[in-house]
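As described in the Methods, two query proteins were run sequentially through the folding procedure within a single session, without resetting any intermediate state between them. The first query and its resulting structure tokens are shown here.
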Amino acid sequence: MIQHGLALLVQPHTAWQRVAQLPSASFNKLALFPVIMALLPAVAWYYGTSRIGWTVGSSEDAIRLTESSAFEISVLFYFVMICSIAIIGYFIHWMSDTYGANSSLTKGIVIAGLTCSPLFLTGLVGFYPLLWVDLLIGVVALSWATYLLYLGIPIVMNIPEERGFLFSSAIIAIALVIFVGILVVTIILWEYGFAPEFTDHSL
């Protein structure tokens, strides 16, 4: 299961071809890939924000979340990742007929989950939350994930590259809408008392 995600980081074209040749039963197992891998960034950021902390400007005092607040946010972060992948996977399946592809909900979720492999792995930077470095690495991981989507859709869906490009672009648009929706919900939750709680050393 995990070897497919790791292979996408070094041999993406070959890895997608192997995924495309898998039987249906294997897709059912691969659907668990994001469920397992999403634990990596959730655990990393829980530890980093509650134990290590981060600094702002020239201040030497590290800002940390309380353990209870970090735990709540990490759990929500985990479920948001899983739900987002499931929604994107649903839309991959839902739009497959439009682009002349044969798909299933499981295949859509597998494509979405494997595409996020770089994001899951780079989420480990949360163990040491140096924000500018984490942001830079995050941009690189997001770029690689976008490349994987554009590469993988035509291969796994067995459609021409031109049609796959349009398909992938539509999925990117949906992902952006989901991202904006997450930001809006986050702001609303913060307004209703679910804002992060900081330790006594916070600014």
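Immediately afterward, the second query was submitted; its sequence and tokens are:
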Amino acid sequence: MDKKNQKSTPFLIGSHGGYRKLKSYQTAEMIYDATIVFCDRFIDKRSRTHDQMVQAARSGVQNIAEGSMASATSKKTELKLTGIARASLEELLLDFQAFLRQKGLRVWAKDSPEALAVRRGYLSDKSDKSDMSDPYSLKTASPEVAANTLICLINQASYLLGRQLQKLEQQFLEEGGFTERLYQARQQAKSIKKDGYK
């Protein structure tokens, strides 16, 4: 067989991982850490709500990471897990809104000065917030400020995950998935073997 004319088979295992560099992951991780602080301060540790809120925050982080790693062999799984991460954060958002409502505390309007200040701080700080222990001073903030700050951050994460899902859908449509790459690689391998015996 002439090696010069040999066709190269495509890579079966696509690029994957790298989730720690995703802004969505960094934000979800920050929300998880901050939710633990919030729940330990304001929610009875023996209550089911405490566990559910912490688990919803954790699910947001873990599913982004798991989806990113699964993308090596399944874009469909990556899409599914990224969607689950977003849904988990939506569940957490409802818990923070319920906390404010049930305590008779103010819910910041989207364009309130306080909400805009949180968003400005989030967007302007280019450093990796995951290295900071308490970037929004939630260890000392009032219940109203802490819950509303987390609502702002969850909305940011949800927006990022929505964009991420759109990008993943487009990639899947354009590139296909692992099964399609496997089929193409097998067809090329057969073609190479056949050409080698000519």
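The chain has a mean pLDDT of 84. We note this only descriptively and draw no conclusion about the first query from it.
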